[in-house]
Amino acid sequence: MDKYLSQPSTYTSCSIIKRIEANWSSIDCGKLCASDFGLRTAEINSNIDTNVNPCDDFYKFACGSWIERTSIPDDDFQMNTVKNMADISKTQLIGLLNKSSADDLPSITNVKVFYKSCLNQRLVSLRPHTVRGGTSTFRRRDI
């Protein structure tokens, strides 16, 4: 299976760049660069390969630098910005689920207990995966 890179935000990148160019003289660069918009724009600009003429190869112009610095993991066949964001979100969520806190609401505690019960191979092999009356058969003391 072939591996490939995709950059779904090419149009968005170009739209932002054109908008900035059109309003450049009225922009307060100090405030803009420190803003979320400025940081996102810098990230988009870092994807552009200015050595390529956009009239010759627009895709390589808009995404060339991103392609050069992005590698595809061995256990995957594609990488794109959306998948990259999903991977980061998943990692952050797993970190939150594994973090214990006495300040957690009961609903958050229940989610964490249920998540950990799915990871407990010994418990999974001993008990069926059933839910009765809206309550998991796994209990906090089982984990």
In short:
By secondary structure, this protein is mainly α. It has helices at residues 10-22, 29-34, 36-45, 58-69, 81-98, 106-119, 121-126; strands at residues 4-6, 78-80, 131-132, 135-136.
Would you mind describing this structure in some detail?
With 143 residues, this protein is mainly α. The protein has two domains: 4-87, no CATH class; 100-142, no CATH class. 55% of the residues lie in helices and 7% in strands. A two-stranded parallel sheet has the order 1-2. A two-stranded antiparallel ribbon has the order 3-4. The two termini are 41 Å apart. The mean pLDDT is 74.
Entry keywords:
single chain, 143 residues, mainly alpha, two-stranded parallel sheet, 7 helices
Overall number of domains: 2
Number of strands: 4
Number of helices: 7
**Spatial separation of the terminal alpha carbons:** 41 Å
Organism: Helobdella robusta (Californian leech)
GO biological process, one term: proteolysis
GO molecular function, one term: metalloendopeptidase activity
Protein name: Peptidase M13 N-terminal domain-containing protein
Secondary-structure map with pairings?
Blueprint: E1 4-6, H1 10-22, H2 29-34, H3 36-45, H4 58-69, E2 78-80, H5 81-98, H6 106-119, H7 121-126, E3 131-132, E4 135-136
Parallel strand pairs: 1-2
Antiparallel strand pairs: 3-4
